[in-house]
Amino acid sequence: MSGEVLSRPLLRQYLETLGVAEKSPSRNALGELVQAHLTRVPFENISKLYYRKHLDLTNLPTIQQYLDGIAQNHFGGTCYSNNYYFYRLLVSLGYDVKLCAADMASPAVHAFSLVRVEGREYLVDTGYAAPFLSPLPRDLTTDYAVELGRDRYVFKPQDKNGCSRLDLYRDGVLKHGYLARPEPRQIEDFSGVIQSSFRPDATFLNSLLPARFYPGRSVVIHNFSLIESQGTVSEIRQLQGLEELIATIEKRFEMPRGVVTEALSGQQKFRDAWDGASP
């Protein structure tokens, strides 16, 4: 575990980025960290496209690159960077936390954290492009639902193997989901699937999904659709071409136009980001 602990300067930078003071582990402090991360650090794959083209990066950015990207370009990340670095933040703050893997279309392709605090265990997922602004309790006896706009996420009680099922229903139709397994993992266990996420046919090299969440509302761009949700209502507007797409990302996510333009250069067609592939 010692190799996961952030240096004091990096820990301070991370907390300053989130706008959160350093506190001892507690359920309330964990909730504050999760909400701050979801509201300040978007799920997005623009940084993935940009670093691939600009730095020829085919792995996770370093923690310093990750934090600098948030500060300088309003980046965030996809599953692996958002969840792995948030896990390291929790380790550094003294939480009883383990990095785990979930099955999607293939086994062990999604990362998340399980955190035990004040006698209860919670699932924390800052990398699923979902409005999980609070830790999800694992000691359920009935389904636990998180709803926003047209999306309904159903978190189910553990099965006999201690696994938790999460299902995403969009407009009432099952769209996606995963099976969260409780066995602890190392980031090296994800090396193969991270490498696969840079293949030419990989989902997040061929789709676009920046998403930011706030209490009761969200802003999501899925390819050429701008989706704004508040309460139980989602409004969807189709963006007319690449120029409007870039301008909308610049306005709604505050990413520099030149960076977004470079990231999206050469992108001809986008496919559904929720096609079952890993992030």
Key words describing this protein structure:
279 residues, alpha+beta, Arylamine N-acetyltransferase fold, 8-stranded antiparallel β-sheet, 4-stranded antiparallel β-sheet, 8 helices, 30% helix, globular
How would you sum up this structure in a few lines?
The protein has helices at residues 8-18, 27-40, 46-54, 63-73, 79-92, 191-196, 242-253, 257-264, and strands spanning 96-103, 110-117, 120-124, 136-137, 144-148, 151-155, 164-170, 173-180, 211-214, 217-222, 225-230, 233-238. It has 279 residues and is an alpha+beta fold.
Architecture overview:
The chain has a single domain (2-264), classed as 2-Layer Sandwich (Arylamine N-acetyltransferase fold). It has an eight-stranded antiparallel β-sheet, with helices on one face. The chain has eight helices and twelve strands. It is of the alpha+beta class and 279 residues long. The chain has helices at 8-18, 27-40, 46-54, 63-73, 79-92, 191-196, 242-253, 257-264, and strands at residues 96-103, 110-117, 120-124, 136-137, 144-148, 151-155, 164-170, 173-180, 211-214, 217-222, 225-230, 233-238.
